[in-house]
Amino acid sequence: MKIPSVEELAKNAVHIGHKTGKICPQMLPYISGIQATLHIIDLEKTREKLKQALDFLKKVAQDKGIILFVGTKPVAKKLIRETAEAVDMPYVNEKWIGGTLTNFSVISKSIEELKKMKEEKEKNVWSIYTKKEQLNLSRKLEKLEKLVGGLSNLDRLPDALFIVDLVEEKTALKEARKLGIPVVALVDTNANPTFVKYPIPANDDALKSVQFLLDLVKQAISSVKEKSEEKNEEKKEEDKEDGKENKKNKDKESK
Question: Is the sign of the CA dihedral 91, 55, 26, 32 positive or negative?
Answer without folding.
Answer: negative
